[in-house]
Amino acid sequence: MAGKRITIVTAGHVSSCPRMLKAADALASAGHQVHVVSANHTPWLTAADASVFSVRPWTSRVVDYDASSGAALRRKTGVRFKVSQALASVIGADRAPMPIAIRAYSRAHDELVHAAASAPADLIYGGTTGALAAVAEAAQALRVPYGVDFEDLHSGERGGPGSELPNALAARVEREVLRSARFSTAASPMISDAYAERYGMRPLPIHNTFSIAPPPATGSEDGPLRLYWCSQTLGPGRGLEEIVRACGDAGVPIELHLRARPIPDYLAQLRAVRAAVAPNLELVEHEPAPPDAMVSLSQSYDAGLASEEPTTLNSQLCLSNKIFTYLAAGIPMLLSRTKAQARLEPQLGEAAFGYESGDVRRLAELIRELASDRALRCRARAAARDAAARRWHWEHPEDRGALVAAVEAALS
User: Of 17, 33, 324, 386, which is the most buried if we count CB atoms within 10 A?
Assistant: First the structure.
């Protein structure tokens, strides 16, 4: 197929949305003219975005509502967002007019639509919560087809008090954008199944896999066991308190390396738990890193942590970036058995050490086994490399290949 003009849209920073970043790279490599629309609203991600933009062959446009560089737009979008949410709350998420529901769900919807519709395109594809409706509206303005990506079951992301309105608004948007989408994708088979059950349309599963990092990773042979956890935000609800308690029960020297931006006071709370129950554990904090470096930065550790808590429907169904980052780096992982992760676990062999969320005793046993058995660590690393090479890498036909094929089918 001759190269087409494709606009990729995310409501987040491009460096914090690896799915849209990989999609842009894949479609550009397939010979298409790619234009990326993203947002700027969080200062520490701005430098990471600049690093991404500087080495990519595609063009970009940024909707800037950062508190310092885009203060006026931040005030404007903030007022619109709050007013829309108040109206949707009073009227009801199911009864509010769609323009209100959309703007109560997406802070920068109008600006994303304008940015995406300002560049000529043959197809628009996008994901993240705030971009879904913008993709559809911009495509309608340009009279071109569109595709949407569901990195999560957005109508099942929230839990607890106050979750009813955002989940209901998400459901309105999901239903609306799926109605006219030429194609859709999702980040796990179980998320695809959930959309099929709710709306009668099953998105194509495209996993959050990554390119394998050469050379093969090598673990530390001496010293404490080195565990690794990475994400964008370090905060509660990620299973880390459970990890700290299990490390204390394991009773062996351990380093727990955390790469993320901490929520204020949370790191102090985690250190307090460590002081109380795990004096054998050293917590090591690392700054967030650009997306292109995340796999290689994982290679030196003995095991990664995929300690998701089953607190929401989405957390039960998703497969996080962490899992596939660790596999691409060639390191095994400790894996909490949410529904989706438990289904994946048998496919990873000795690369995955599964445990039930809340079972601190079993988690401590697994940590102790890894710390004391060097041969087990070596086998587990080999299993991680084998699993990545066999199936769980971005270049696999069922991930990058399937996405490119879906886009080109929509274009033709």
Answer: 17
State pTM to two decimals.
Answer: 0.95
3-state secondary structure the chain: CCCCEEEEEECCCHHHCHHHHHHHHHHHHCCCEEEEEEEECCHHHHHHHHHHHCCCCCEEEEEECCCCCCHHHHHHHHHHHHHHHHHHHHHCCCCCCHHHHHHHHCCCHHHHHHHHHCCCCCEEEEECHHHHHHHHHHHHHHCCCEEEEECCCHHHCCCCCCCHHHHHHHHHHHHHHHHHCCEEEECCHHHHHHHHHHHCCCCEECCCCCCCCCCCCCCCCCCCEEEEEEEEEECCCCCHHHHHHHHHHHCCCEEEEEEEEECCCHHHHHHHHHHHHCCCEEEEEECCCCHHHHHHHCCCCCEEEECCCCCCHHHHHCCCHHHHHHHHHCCCEEEECCHHHHHHHHHHHHHEEEECCCCHHHHHHHHHHHHHCHHHHHHHHHHHHHHHHHCCCCCCHHHHHHHHHHHHHHHC
Q: What percent of the chain has pLDDT over 70?
A: 98
Q: Write down all domains in the chain, each with its CATH number in brackets.
A: 5-209+394-411 (3.40.50.2000), 225-390 (3.40.50.2000)
pLDDT tier at 87 (50, 70, 90 boundaries)?
Answer: very high
Confidence category of residue 220, pLDDT binned at 50, 70, 90 = low
